[in-house]
UniProtKB/TrEMBL annotation:
It is an enzyme of class 1 (oxidoreductase). GO terms for cellular component: peroxisome. This is Phytanoyl-CoA dioxygenase, peroxisomal. It comes from the Eukaryota. One of its GO terms (biological process) is fatty acid alpha-oxidation. The lineage of its organism: Eukaryota, Metazoa, Chordata, Craniata, Vertebrata.
Amino acid sequence: MMSRAADRLKVVLNHLDGSHGNVRASFTSAQSVSHHHPQSFRYTLDTDILTPEQRLSYEENGFILIRNLVSAEDIEKFRKAFEQICKREVKVPGLVVMKDVSIAKSEFVEGEKAVTKLQDFQEVPGLFRYCTLPQILKYVECFTGPNIMAMHTMLINKPPDTGKRTSRHPMHQDLHYFAFRPADHIVCAWTAMEKVHRQNGCLVVLPGSHKGSLQEHDYPEWEGGINKMYHGVRNYDPNHSRVHLEMEKGDTVFFHPLLIHGSGMNQTEGFRKAISCHYASADCYYIDVKGTTQENISDEVKDLAFRKYGVDSLSFQDTWALRGRLVRGERTSL
Ligand SMILES: CC(C)CC(=O)SCCNC(=O)CCNC(=O)[C@H](O)C(C)(C)COP(=O)(O)OP(=O)(O)OC[C@H]1O[C@@H](n2cnc3c(N)ncnc32)[C@H](O)[C@@H]1OP(=O)(O)O
Ligand SMILES: Nc1ncnc2c1ncn2[C@@H]1O[C@H](COP(=O)(O)OP(=O)(O)OP(=O)(O)O)[C@@H](O)[C@H]1O
Ligand SMILES: O=C(O)CCC(=O)C(=O)O
Ligand SMILES: [Fe+2]
Ligand SMILES: [Mg+2]
């Protein structure tokens, strides 16, 4: 498994060497295209998919909610694939299985009830199929353009809160975690696998916050503990007006990586499930985060990668290049 990862890294690094130079060039031309609408659209591309209202709404709010986009049959299949992994019927190299910190530190809990989140399921066909669904990619293309990479995958199984409030996810911008740009060509698709509402900890967003810049993130000072890598925006103003995104099974929200969002605690007995993928244009380019506000997360990621693969030469960018998979068009840069 280690040698597979190392092999893949070699391929990826060779690929990166060969293509870095072209990246900015392809974005320059993309930008000159959008100059045809100088003052109107910054966050969406010209396609026939979004209605003018949807397009304006994303421009203004930083997200759009599409109802009933993924079928109940597909969601059932993702649920089964998740179950198999929790029962350890399949072992997957590279998969991150995360437990809520207060569950991990309490008595032994097994199976599905112990797993709060799966990350990096790009090698699990039964889950990765989500990232390739044509009805999802159709929308993704409105933000990324035709060359699409699936960069980050998650299945979130938000547990009933243990009483320590660790089931909350602090308000954050996903771009804090990403070593690629430009932000406007990155989008998250997040699909509810069941009804999500305020009680079970639906997504909470700050509309319009995508128009701001990337903020400093750090661990919030929460008494009951905080999950590893759950950074929140520093100086979060709890009085800022928020929107709770209540969704039905199959509803999908597409949101910008600078949109400030989080989720409240799960006050029900059920495990609130969602599946998501972050996409980026394959024409994006990697950045070095040294000396930026992202250095704290980059250090944590490299430290975990070292412990997991035993390689200390992996850069933050490499960890992304290894996980990214092309889902449409050409792998031009990322
Ligand atoms: C845009 C997107 C990227 C945004 C996000 O998703 S932000 C969240 C990103 N999260 C991640 O990348 C997942 C990070 N978590 C992990 O990789 C894992 O859960 C690990 C922290 C490595 C722990 O996994 P593993 O080593 O398998 O767990 P073990 O049961 O062996 O426990 C080892 C020690 O770690 C502790 N632990 C387990 N889970 C967590 C947790 N969630 N938060 C904080 N500490 C944790 C555990 O209690 C144990 O501690 P000690 O007994 O050694 O003191
Ligand atoms: N100091 C903070 N820093 C960053 N994020 C925070 C902070 N305080 C709260 N949050 C986040 O804001 C979001 C909403 O918090 P909260 O726990 O109040 O949930 P809620 O959905 O509003 O629930 P309720 O209906 O009970 O108020 C959650 O993502 C939470 O983690
Ligand atoms: O499903 C959730 O609670 C939100 C998760 C999230 O925003 C993230 O992991 O980046
Ligand atoms: Fe997020
Ligand atoms: Mg609240």
